[in-house]
Amino acid sequence: MFSLSRRGPERSASKRCPRPVSLCGGQSGARPRRVACKALGVVACLLVACASEHSEAPMLVRVHVRDDRGEPVAGATIEVEGIAAISSAADGRAQVSLGSRGSPRTRVGVSCPAAYRPVEPRHLVRGASTRSAPLELAFTCRPKLRTLVVVARAPGGEGLVLRADGEPLGQIGADGTLHALLRRAPESDLRLMLDTAGRALLPQHPARELRVADRDELVVFDERLSTAKVRPAPRPQVAVSKPAAPPLPYAIRASR
Prior knowledge:
The protein is mainly beta. It has helices at 20-23, 31-56, 250-255; strands at residues 2-3, 59-67, 77-80, 83-87, 93-98, 105-111, 122-125, 135-141, 146-153, 161-164, 167-171, 177-184, 189-195, 201-202, 207-211, 217-222, 226-227.
């Protein structure tokens, strides 16, 4: 446990207590009166000691650090007023002790490991509660990148490449499916495209655009492909010329 309070040597409570004779005005009296004065002095001494002890009692804070799936996060740094105090254990827990001296308003924050995003700190007011149990604080570390499980189904598309933002993600298998993992920042845009270049398939280059949510999820790319029908090239038409009629004999022409 890390304590930020530095307490000096304890002074004897008897030095802060009023003498019993001062409560009686310093006059001697009957024995019952002297006994009552001494009792009042003892009670006053106890009240002063208890009040002083209560004001100097440290404030215990128990911190729980988990990710957004509820799993504990080890190695997170607990910070008090921006100063590293202690790291969370394997169970994601840590405990700090806040002294009574200094400003009554204290900022307690968590610096998550490198794979997580920053977390907003909390502000505590010391002395506002008289509870003896530690104050419980919970922090959630959210990852910088989200994991997407991509499942592509493209019957008839064996060997086609699935691209994510232009980068190859994998090839469609003989069963017409592809399984791949993809990591992207939340709230970013993602474009999946099935590259059909060089293949007589329809539709050509089917694509899907989506926005990455702030959670791990399953993405299904389902596309039915069909073979494009190739029309035969038209045959060239050859002009057929009729043969010229043979010339008539001269006798026949003259008779006409």
